[in-house]
């Protein structure tokens, strides 16, 4: 790549949504004939950066140059005209149209003022032939596999723009054979001089295909490095944060008391679901905080879904106090004394238009059964007590919960589960997207809860947070439980080591 | 092999052919150009409006204002021509401009204010109906030599049937509509928006102008339908054509267009209109059935078609999933 020079150069990109900084002074550069991976956990700012580069969002600060001249694409069409094409992960092409219609939407060949279908078919065939695809272009897109759709989308984007190709999680739903097919297409495009940005969370794929990597974390640039000179462990530490200093753990003494309790009342044995999480064993003792660590897509959230009965396990058994139980639905899990605060607070957690009091009372109501309604007086008493004990602000039980800040919403959801007095509470990313003050309070609350004898499962991508609150940490990689760390071995470095080791053995 | 995409249309066509054959078995007289000619003329105004509705539903929207706009148009034209002595062609032009602007305004509100089409066009429905009452609550008769000429114009079929000017207008609208939907960029954009507005936007489809265009087209065709209705009844009446939008929706859905948008054919709507007309004709021939049976049969057909559409979606999803499994 001696003749490569900067094709796309973004400097100091900043973006704020409703006062929340999504991107803060990020630099990014892409060369001609380069595949550049963009990495980061959820909420790191990857999608925001991509959307700014491709004209979906406008930037608040910073400059952007394409081929040496300043550009500011105002929408997707303008970015396409400039030469920047995008293939999104979910919203992609139109399944109700044929392959040919998808390829030529908005630029159909004309004859006598009408669309020339024969010409469109011919050109589509020719275009796809360059990608090694020989398919019926008059068939509906929905009749083809995700891999074929992905290549059709790439063909359209490259044909349309031709300088920069952005791929958002292109391999998320492909099997290994399909991934290889996609990668050979990408390698060919790289040889043709295209600059390709790829977002993915599969590290071995990053090493297989990309030349350089840029890592974002919490809206900031961590660094841009050549992959040939970057050991995997270092990459992981870039992603998960390197300020992994020795946080003094206050519950060291408690560890022993927990360990002393011989028999765990809540046990999952050989528990798993095909295509979701490989079978694992998990014992949870009273007053214990079990942390779950792993990169995005490693099966963290899937594990929580299994434990809470959102996904049905297809192997293994769950026992509580020696009695086998079947957790086939969240309702069954709630009856057994489980609680779950999901990762997507806005969509899966709160009911925005309901008042704080109604949101808090939801799980208790579900546990009591709908035939025994909670009176509005009880509901308010309940809400008032939690508003006081958790310091929810503003202290107004009647306010629709959507008007509360993220941290206070999270507290209200915690209150919802605490009201049911659960014996096991599962928290998926309990501190994401909330300010630092609330962050500390929630961590403190976790400590207090487990000292009162409640068991917790905490999923987090913040390793410092996990090592600070958890007694044991289970490390996940590629949807398997690969390691369990406790006591002195429980450090952020060891967690990263465990992730890196398992990723290496897979690649080998 | 028939593409699953066209399966609803083929089904509709099959149902129509079978139903017509059964009718003929019972009443051999129903196989005549006279019956066909009358069927086309009687349903001309509904057919014209249903073409507009087809575009709206293909884009994933709905237009509830159609019946009211037809009533408004007919009263407006009748008063202009009958009471004020305006030339009919000038009145037609004026009313088409008004209804088109009305439609584009609704389209703009849907797009730029982000209000659901159901709500916007419901407001439009009340507005147009109210405006019609404001002009006149009486039935206003209309007569003019130009109108008489149009009404008297027809081609004679062998067998005594007449292809009237109204029927020809409807057929023309269907042919042009089918070309616009299937062979123009605007048509392709309509299907794209119906498939997924978000994806269409990311693929560079001008969603705003297209949405406005769709409702403007529906407004224009409602106006044209109102003119056809005026010619058909030789009068304008503000209480007329209540609920015609629902008949139009029924014709579109029976014609195989997915109510969620993105899939369907203008030709299907034509068959949908024919089926509705056929049921009415059968009831006339039978003589003992109440005309409300039309509604009952349409209701049953709608149920069948909605279930059929669900079934097709379920089937193609399952087939796709099976295909995936086999690959793995």
What does this entry look like structurally?
The complex is a heterodimer of chains A (508) and B (328). Chain A has 508 residues and is an alpha/beta fold. Chain A has three domains: 6-96 and 140-230, P-loop containing nucleotide triphosphate hydrolases (Rossmann fold), CATH 3.40.50.300; 252-337 and 423-507, Rossmann fold, CATH 3.40.50.300; 355-421, no CATH class. Helices cover 37% and strands 25% of the residues of chain A. In chain A, strands 6-9-10-3-11-12 form a six-stranded mixed sheet, with helices on both faces. In chain A, β11 (212-217) and β12 form a beta hairpin. In chain A, α8 crosses α18 and α13 packs parallel to α15. The longest helix of chain A has 16 residues, at 176-191. By secondary structure, chain B is mainly alpha-helical. Chain B has one domain: ABC transporter involved in vitamin B12 uptake, BtuC (Orthogonal Bundle), CATH 1.10.3470. In chain B, the strands form two sheets. Chain B has a two-stranded antiparallel ribbon with strand order 1-4. In chain B, α2 (33-42) packs across α8 (165-183), α2 (33-42) crosses α13 and α13 (266-286) runs antiparallel to α14. The longest helix of chain B has 36 residues, at 292-327. The mean pLDDT of chain B is 89. The chains are: A alpha/beta (508), B mainly alpha (328). The interface between A and B is medium-sized, with 30 and 32 residues.
């Amino acid at each position: 790549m001696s003749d490569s020079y900067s094709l796309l150069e973004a400097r100091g990109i900043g973006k704020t949504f409703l006062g929340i900084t999504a991107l803060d002074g990020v630099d990014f550069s892409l060369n001609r004939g380069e595949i550049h991976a963009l990495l980061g956990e959820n909420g790191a700012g990857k999608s925001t950066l991509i959307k700014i580069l491709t004209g979906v969002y406008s930037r608040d600060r910073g400059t952007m140059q394409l081929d040496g001249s300043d550009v500011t694409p105002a929408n997707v069409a303008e970015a396409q005209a400039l030469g920047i094409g995008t293939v999104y992960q979910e919203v992609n092409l139109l399944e109700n149209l044929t392959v040919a219609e998808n390829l030529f939407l908005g630029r159909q060949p004309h004859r006598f003022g009408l669309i020339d279908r024969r010409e469109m078919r011919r050109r589509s065939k020719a275009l796809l032939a360059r990608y090694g695809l020989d398919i019926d272009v008059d068939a509906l897109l929905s009749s083809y596999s995700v891999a074929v759709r992905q290549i059709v989308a790439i063909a359209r984007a490259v044909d349309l723009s031709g300088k920069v190709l952005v791929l958002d999680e292109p391999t998320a739903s492909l099997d290994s054979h399909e991934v290889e097919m996609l990668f050979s297409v990408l390698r060919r495009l790289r040889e043709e001089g295209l600059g390709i940005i790829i977002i993915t969370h599969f590290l071995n794929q990053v090493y297989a295909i990309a030349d350089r990597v840029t890592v974002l974390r919490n809206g900031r640039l961590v660094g841009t490095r050549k992959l040939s000179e970057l050991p995997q462990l270092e990459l992981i530490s870039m992603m998960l944060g390197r300020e992994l200093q020795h946080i003094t753990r206050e519950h060291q003494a408690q560890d022993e008391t927990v360990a002393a309790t011989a028999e765990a009342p809540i046990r999952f044995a050989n528990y798993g679901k095909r295509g979701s999480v490989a079978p694992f064993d998990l014992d949870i003792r009273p007053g214990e905080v079990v942390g779950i660590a792993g990169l995005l897509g490693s099966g963290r959230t899937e594990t929580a879904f299994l434990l809470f009965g959102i996904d049905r396990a297809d192997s293994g058994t769950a026992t509580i106090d020696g009695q086998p139980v079947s957790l086939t639905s969240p309702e069954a899990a709630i009856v057994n004394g489980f609680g779950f605060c999901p990762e997507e607070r806005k969509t899966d957690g709160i009911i925005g238009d309901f008042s704080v009091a109604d949101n808090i009372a939801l799980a208790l109501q579900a546990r009591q059964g709908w035939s025994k309604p909670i009176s509005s007086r009880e509901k308010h008493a309940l809400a008032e007590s939690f508003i006081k004990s958790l310091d929810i602000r503003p202290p107004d039980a009647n306010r629709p919960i959507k008007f509360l800040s993220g941290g206070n919403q999270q507290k209200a959801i915690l209150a919802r589960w605490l009201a049911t007095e659960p014996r096991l509470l599962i928290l998926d990313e309990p501190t994401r997207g909330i300010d630092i003050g609330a962050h500390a309070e929630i961590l403190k609350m976790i400590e207090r809860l487990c000292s009162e004898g409640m068991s917790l499962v905490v999923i987090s991508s913040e390793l410092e947070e996990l090592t600070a609150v958890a007694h044991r940490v289970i490390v996940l990689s590629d949807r398997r439980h690969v390691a369990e760390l406790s006591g002195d071995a429980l450090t952020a470095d060891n967690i990263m080591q465990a992730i890196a080791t398992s990723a290496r053995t897979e690649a080998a | 092999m028939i593409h699953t995409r066209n399966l609803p249309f083929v089904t509709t066509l099959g149902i129509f052919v079978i139903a017509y054959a059964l009718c003929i078995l019972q009443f051999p007289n129903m196989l005549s150009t006279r019956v066909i000619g009358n069927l086309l003329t009687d349903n001309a105004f509904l057919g014209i409006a249903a073409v507009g509705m087809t575009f709206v539903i293909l884009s994933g929207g709905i237009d509830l204002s159609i019946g009211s706009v037809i009533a408004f148009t007919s009263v407006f034209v009748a008063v202009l021509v009958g009471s004020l002595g305006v030339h009919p062609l000038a009145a037609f032009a004026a009313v088409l401009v008004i209804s088109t602007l009305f439609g584009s305004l609704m389209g703009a509100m849907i797009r730029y204010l982000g209000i659901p089409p159901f709500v916007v066009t419901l407001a439009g429905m009340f507005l147009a109906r109210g405006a019609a009452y404001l002009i006149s609550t009486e039935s206003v008769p209309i007569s003019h030599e130009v109108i008489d000429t149009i009404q008297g114009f027809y081609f004679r079929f062998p067998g005594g049937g007449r292809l009237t000017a109204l029927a020809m207008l409807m057929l023309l609208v269907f042919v042009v509509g089918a070309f616009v939907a299937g062979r123009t960029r605007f048509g392709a954009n309509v299907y794209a928006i119906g498939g997924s507005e978000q994806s269409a936007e990311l693929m560079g489809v001008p969603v705003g102008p297209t949405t406005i265009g769709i409702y403007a087209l529906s407004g224009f065709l409602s106006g044209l339908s109102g003119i056809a209705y005026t010619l058909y009844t030789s009068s304008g009446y503000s209480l007329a054509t209540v609920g015609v939008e629902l008949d139009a929706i029924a014709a579109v859905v029976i014609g195989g267009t997915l109510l969620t948008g993105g899939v369907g054919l203008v030709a299907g709507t034509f068959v949908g209109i024919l089926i509705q007309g056929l049921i009415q004709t059968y009831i006339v021939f039978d003589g003992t059935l109440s005309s409300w049976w039309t509604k009952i049969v349409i209701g049953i057909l709608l149920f069948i078609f909605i279930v059929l559409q669900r079934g097709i979606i379920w089937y193609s999803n399952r087939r796709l999933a099976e295909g995936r499994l086999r690959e793995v």
